[in-house]
Amino acid sequence: MQHPKRPAHTPLGQAWETFERAKEVFDLGYWGASIEVFERAKELFQQQLEDQGVAMCHAAIAAALNNNGKPREAIEHGLEALSFYERIDSKPQLAEQSQNLALMYSALAQNEKAEEFHVKAAENYRAFDQPELAAQNLLTAANLLARRRQPDSARPLFTEAISLFAEVQDPTADHARATALMQLAYLEKLENNSDAARLLYLEALEIFEQLNAHWEIGTCLEGLAAVEFDAHEPAHASEHAKEALRVFRAHGYDEDARRAAANYQATLIAASFSRRGKGYKTRKEDGEES
Known about the structure:
Blueprint: H1 11-27, H2 31-47, H3 51-67, H4 71-88, H5 91-107, H6 111-127, H7 131-147, H8 151-166, H9 171-190, H10 194-211, H11 214-230, H12 234-250, H13 254-289
Helix pairs in contact: 1-2, 1-3, 2-3, 3-4, 4-5, 5-6, 6-7, 7-8, 7-9, 8-9, 9-10, 9-11, 10-11, 11-12, 12-13
Keywords: ER-Golgi transport, Membrane, Protein transport, Transport
Pfam families: SNAP (PF14938)
GO biological process, one term: intracellular protein transport
């Protein structure tokens, strides 16, 4: 964020000059050294009651500490920065700082805090009309919740992220929307909601086909096959597993093709047993009738 121009000879101007020097040191990769200069700039800003400058210094110190492998100390400064940004109600910086804090908490495997700050970032990105960034944060929070086996909390975040991605007329956002659909489909599969999972995989597949995203097409087909296999529909599962194998082989995804081949064989075996079972049942019924 650009700061207001100040005459260098004023105390506030000196604070901004000190901040710029610290940024130069930071950009050179001397993060530890930059912290000392940012601290000096922060003191000058505090003397002038310049909340924006104080916030920016805390945010910069947090970034430097995090780059130096000190995420716990970084979080302390990140929270201070957030507090000052809230005071001046700067939505763009609130969003960015919340996202940074979420990533720091994730690095410490504090996933509940990471979820909280990803959602907070999304709220602020929405507030200044950045639906794609909002959606990215919601999607990350949704996946963190899904990994912690909290489907009821994850589901609405997935749904909201999908809606926000749809607002953006852009192939990258389309790809992200299809990815979110596929991830929600997997969640529904784990929850044994086979009908919902099937519809979500099909919707994602349609988008990926429009984008010619071959690996994702194969992955969607595998997901569909898995849903149908679990739903005791081996014939349909076999059809989609075979197509997944074909896509992976055709586009050079050898490792995925090996996995898909094993899955396809499993569906063929299941389909064979299913046919035998139906044949036995039919013969038994015929015998009973006679």
